[in-house]
Automatic annotation (TrEMBL), chain A:
Lineage summary: Eukaryota, Viridiplantae, Streptophyta, Embryophyta, Tracheophyta
All copies of domain SANT, residue ranges: 260-311
Segments forming domain SWIRM: 24-121
Keyword Lipid metabolism: no
SMART domains registered for this protein in UniProt: SANT
Signal sequence coordinates: none
GO CC annotation terms, alphabetical: nucleus
A GO molecular-function descriptor: DNA binding
InterPro entries: Homeodomain-like_sf (IPR009057), SANT/Myb (IPR001005), SANT_dom (IPR017884), SMARCC_C (IPR032451), SWIRM (IPR007526), WH-like_DNA-bd_sf (IPR036388)
Region annotated Disordered, chain positions: 346-366
PANTHER family: SWI/SNF COMPLEX-RELATED, SWI_SNF COMPLEX SUBUNIT SWI3A
Originating species: Ananas comosus (Pineapple)
Protein name, as recorded: SWI/SNF complex subunit SWI3A isoform X1
All copies of domain Myb-like, residue ranges: 263-307
UniProtKB/TrEMBL annotation, chain B:
One Pfam entry name: SNF5
Family: Belongs to the SNF5 family.
Biological process annotations from GO: chromatin remodeling
Domain of life: Eukaryota
Keywords: Nucleus, Transcription, Transcription regulation
UniProt xrefs under InterPro entries: SNF5 (IPR006939)
Protein name per its UniProtKB record: Chromatin structure-remodeling complex protein BSH
Principal place of residence: nucleus
The organism of origin for this protein: Ananas comosus var. bracteatus (red pineapple)
Entry annotated with the keyword Cytoplasm: no
Subcellular localization, as worded in the UniProt entry: Nucleus
CC per GO annotation: nuclear chromosome
Length: 577, 247
């Protein structure tokens, strides 16, 4: 996949000679544009034409306006088209025309690349590919962050060439693919490009996209050109398994031929980088000075690539880590080894084609196996790199959820631009299959086997089209986020259920408490009543005794008036009542 | 024609400028004691009236005009605002109508002639932005040209808007047969035949031979030419004033 930020719209102006066909450069974000249709973007941005609220504004009129303006611009793409030029030829409200004009200009359908240097434009009009060196030369001007100048189509990948009707471009691709040395895409001078990839130190031979090793001249026949024009040396093309670090390397390699070579980090440079990071923190200027051979953005990219890079930065920002650079170098080495080993793990037959140097690495890495295991088992603690986290998260979230998330991510990316769709659509099926097949495995596998699954997943995701690494990374990121979100939702639901349960138990306890209290009160009341009856009984008996006593007294004839006073008061009262 | 009536039957709205911003054009041409002050600008009718006097004072101070101009400016602006307010609150019949607007003006040394189509019912239009684009596309350096074009556009839109109000009013009163038909037809004449261009048989692409009609023409005059023109205008103005006095 080309990292190009541009897409070429082909004009069927000259059917006889496809090489003489005019190619126009429009931004990749405007890939939705079709001559024979009206896209939703247009409907959204210029709703006036599609509401049917006006007689003079209807889709047909819109298309006439649009087509005329674009055609007018393409009469001479090097010349900037102004609104005043356009409106004299169009019948209609100038305010509306202006809005439409600005819309087309904003999307780069017109005036994109206007004002370019004449030679570049001329070359583009001829449809002849410039040599890669020339494209990166001074004729390309970066202005206001936007690409200027109409440039020629970079060689299309074969799969593309087949899809598209542009036979000429396809032939050119095939030719350059055979050449080996000429493979690669010229990058547009986008600002984002220079930020991310920085400068490249010149090397001579192309690099293998997998192992990063220089391919010697004799190996050229063995090399495979992957979709997107990457070189893969013979041994790696057998295994076709890559891990995240190599993916990043790959994306670095994309423009390897812009300056004739790619930049690989030597161990010494990496050591220097780590030292510098420890010493200077995140002052990248100083770090770049320390490393000397690499640019600032290179250093940043490299540190991010390192499996423990984030961790290092994190610990540095907090407190200065006491790890010595020697240990780190050792870590680095083991990591690299383990990754290499990992990439081979699933496929045992790889070793047969290995060169001696490679075999050494394999031997070392076998010894490091325990380290690797530890590394992957703790992969959730942010010391690992993105792809692993993606894989782990997808495993954690469940295969079907992950598949759905990946699907959504891919769809969204596809909607964003068509190039991504082309890159992803090939792998969509494999990805989904891999997710579900992994799901089947998942049930049978225990935790210890997870690291076996990871490379497989990586394999499926990374299979074949390394050129789309950027898109793939994004898709993977989004997938990871989706998977994480799904996981989080599961957690949230679980927590909520837990909370509801707890709440229910609390309420139950409260109810029971009240019931106990009620029972207690009932008992109390009961005792009270009993006591009351007892008292009543005793009262009656006392009364009866009194009556008896008085009767006896009467019989005895001792009747005295003052005896009345002897009556206990409560009884009197009681009787009165 | 059926579809046309379908779309043109919009509910009447309250009178305002048929542009995104409700700014009205103000033109000043004041002569006191042989000293002349001409100006054109836009005014937001929602601003408080006290702003007028502030504006007048400020202008007189900046242009070093005699203080007598203050009251004259205030009167003139107030009169034009009052005219606008007399229309405010009345119903305006918004009919989809695309009219050709003509620009023919001279600002300092720059002469601009232009013609373009304007949809009077497009309430999102922005004459100032249009004028800015025009000046940018034509590389007009004089910063006074853009605003002058915008004011010229607004004046014509204002005229059309007031006509649509008065035509409505006269159409109602026209039953008494007081030359209502005359004013009613006037704006209709200049408006574009929409069916001809936007109907299913028409084309919105103008014929190449007609392009020159809708193309802006810019002339940069030399100072001598400007002087001669100024003198002629002065003369015409005096003659006109004398004629007015005689009447």
């Amino acid at each position: 996949m080309r990292p190009s930020g541009q897409e070429e719209e082909e004009e069927e102006e000259d059917e006889d000679d496809s090489l003489a066909r005019d190619l126009y450069t429009i931004p990749i974000s405007s890939g939705w544009f079709r001559w024979d249709g009206i896209h939703d973007t247009e409907r959204r941005s210029l709703p006036e034409f599609f509401e049917g609220s006006s007689f003079t504004r209807n889709p047909r009129v819109y298309k006439d306006y649009r087509d005329f303006i674009i055609n007018k611009y393409r009469e001479d793409p090097s010349c900037r088209l102004t609104f005043t030029d356009v409106r004299k030829a169009l019948v209609g409200d100038v305010s509306l025309l202006r809005k439409l004009f600005l819309f087309l200009e904003r999307w780069g359908l017109i005036n994109f690349g206007a004002g370019a240097a004449p030679p570049a434009a001329a070359a583009a009009a001829d449809g002849v590919a410039l040599p890669p060196g020339e494209a990166a030369g001074p004729s390309v001007v970066v202005e206001e962050g936007a690409p200027w100048g109409v440039r020629v189509v970079p060689p299309l990948p074969q799969s593309y060439a087949a899809e598209r009707k542009s036979g000429g471009a396809g032939a050119a691709t095939a030719a350059s693919a055979v050449g080996g040395d000429e493979i690669g895409c010229r990058l547009p001078p986008l600002t984002s490009y220079s930020d991310v990839f920085g400068e490249w130190t010149p090397r001579k031979a192309p690099f293998c996209g997998f192992c990063g090793e220089e391919c010697s001249a004799g190996q050229h026949e063995l090399m495979e050109v992957m979709k997107g024009g990457f070189v893969v040396c013979a041994k790696c093309s057998k295994s076709k398994v890559i891990c995240e670090e190599e993916t990043v390397q790959l994306s670095d390699h994309k423009d390897g031929d812009v300056n004739g070579a790619a930049s690989a980090w030597t161990d010494a440079e990496t050591l220097l980088l780590l030292e510098a990071v420890l010493k200077h923190g995140d002052d990248w200027d100083l770090i770049a000075q320390h490393v000397r051979t690499k640019s600032k953005s290179d250093c940043i990219a490299r540190l991010i690539q390192l499996p423990f890079g984030e961790h290092m930065l994190g610990s540095m920002n907090g407190k200065c880590d006491s790890r010595t650079s020697v240990i780190q170098a050792y870590d680095l080495k083991t990591n690299q080894n383990s990754i290499t080993e990992l990439s081979k793990g699933p496929i045992q037959s790889v070793t047969s084609t290995h060169t001696d140097g490679k075999e050494n690495v394999v031997d070392e890495s076998t010894e490091e196996r325990p380290l690797k295991r530890r590394c992957f088992l703790s992969s959730l603690d942010a010391t690992d790199s993105l792809m692993n986290q993606v894989a782990l998260l997808s495993t954690v979230a469940g295969p079907h959820v992950a598949a759905a998330a990946a699907d959504t991510a891919v769809t969204t990316l596809c909607n964003e631009n068509t190039r991504a769709r082309d890159a992803l659509i090939v792998n969509e099926e494999t990805m989904n299959n891999s997710f579900s097949s992994n799901g089947d495995q998942c049930s049978g596998l225990n935790v210890g086997d997870q690291d076996m699954m990871l490379p497989q997943r990586a394999e499926c995701q990374m299979d074949k089209s390394f050129g789309a690494a950027a898109y793939r990374m994004r898709a993977a990121t989004v997938t990871a986020m989706g998977a994480a979100a799904a996981r989080a939702k599961l957690f949230a639901e679980h927590e909520e259920r837990e909370m509801q349960l707890l709440m229910a138990s609390i309420i139950e306890a409260q109810l029971r408490k009240i019931q106990y209290k009620l029972k207690h009160f009932e008992e109390l009341e009961h005792t009270m009543e009993q006591e009351y009856t007892l008292i009543q009984q005793s009262k009656e008996s006392i009364l009866a005794e009194w009556v008896n006593l008085l009767r006896q007294a009467f019989r005895a004839g001792i009747a005295r008036l003052r005896d009345h006073h002897v009556f206990p008061k409560p009884f009197l009262n009681k009787n009165c009542m | 024609m059926r579809s046309l009536t379908l779309w043109s039957s919009k509910a009447p709205i309250k009178f305002r400028m048929p542009t995104a911003e409700n700014l009205i054009p103000i033109r000043l041409d004041i002569e006191v004691d042989g000293q002349r002050y001409k100006d054109a600008f836009v005014w937001n009718p929602d601003d408080p009236d006290s702003e007028v006097i502030n504006f007048a004072k400020r202008t007189v101070k900046d242009l070093k005009l005699p203080p007598t101009f203050v009251t004259q400016i205030v009167q003139s602006v107030q009169a034009q605002l009052a005219e606008f307010r007399s229309f405010e609150g009345q119903d305006m019949h918004v009919k989809e109508k695309i009219v050709p607007l003509k620009i023919d003006l001279r600002v300092n040394n720059t002469v601009v002639r232009d013609q373009f189509l304007w949809d009077v019912s497009n309430f999102e239009s922005d004459p100032e932005e249009f004028a800015r684009t025009l000046c940018k596309d034509l590389n007009i350096g004089d910063p006074e040209v853009g605003p002058a074009i915008a004011v010229a556009i607004r004046e014509q839109l204002y005229e059309i808007a007031t006509q649509s109000v008065s035509s409505l009013r006269e159409a109602r009163a026209g039953k008494k047969g007081r030359r209502g038909a005359d004013t009613f037809n006037r704006p209709g004449n200049s408006a574009l035949d929409l069916v001809k261009y936007f109907g299913s048989k028409g084309s919105v692409i103008r014929k190449r031979k007609d392009w020159y009609l809708y193309e802006p023409i810019v002339d940069i005059l030399s100072n001598e030419e400007v002087g001669a023109l100024d003198a002629r205008e002065e003369l015409n103005a005096r003659l006109k004033r004398k004629l007015d006095e005689k009447e």
